[in-house]
Amino acid sequence: MENSIKNEKTVGITGASGALGKELTKLFRHKGYKVIGFTHSTPNSEINLESPNEWIKWECGKESTLKKHLKKVDILILNHGIYNLSRENFNYENSIEINALSKFKLLNLFEDIALANESLVKREIWINTSEAEILPALNPSYEISKSLIGKLVSFKKNLQNKDVKKRLTIKKIILGPFKSELNPIGIMSAKFVSKKIYDLANSNSYLIIISPNPLTFLLFPLKEFLNFLYCRIIYKYKS
């Protein structure tokens, strides 16, 4: 993400009507970016300096319908998700579909767009997984879905070929508990988290970790390193 051309860039944010989505939208608008907000709910038709420049309503399972909109996007932030405490099987399926499979479909779709793009400008995709990827969240369906998307993103990142690496940067966002409608007792504020995401994303680091838990800063880099080694073995075995 180059500051020198940031005013020319468009950011797409899924879950834009949620607490973090709203704060990210305000921050990027303030920095001069154009923002496209993707939401499952009926968007507010009012457009102002704190709202997306454009609202797109969509639903999981129909990710392919977003292709024409994603072609306009330089930085895509996958931030949508659910947190449901129900123990019903349907909730497990719903959590996996929304928190994991939907994000993975959008990642693949955005990768295809980046590879087809004739522009030399590199696209970026930031995927919000959560520290529940490996740490307990007192919600089995949430933990399973976050573990799945976390592994999918790690494998996608480590198995990228050279052509994809030139066209698409993948960043994984690991968040601790922040205050929102899904988690009203979160420790961090959505405004604080959005600013940290923006600041840390300007580095070359693949992992963007924001958490009050020191274990997160130890366990996730180790996990990603082990994934990297495993993928090196896969490459060697294939050759």
Account of the 3D structure:
- Strand 6, helix 6 (190-201) and strand 7 form a beta-alpha-beta unit.
- With 239 residues, this protein is of the alpha/beta class.
- It has seven helices and seven strands.
- A seven-stranded parallel β-sheet has the order 3-2-1-4-5-6-7, with helices on both faces.
- It has one domain (3-238): Rossmann fold (3-Layer(aba) Sandwich).
- Helix content is 44%, strand content 15%.
Secondary-structure topology with pairs:
Blueprint: E1 10-14, H1 19-30, E2 34-39, E3 54-57, H2 67-70, E4 75-78, H3 89-116, E5 123-128, H4 140-158, H5 162-167, E6 168-175, H6 190-201, E7 207-210, H7 214-238
Parallel strand pairs: 1-2, 1-4, 2-3, 4-5, 5-6, 6-7
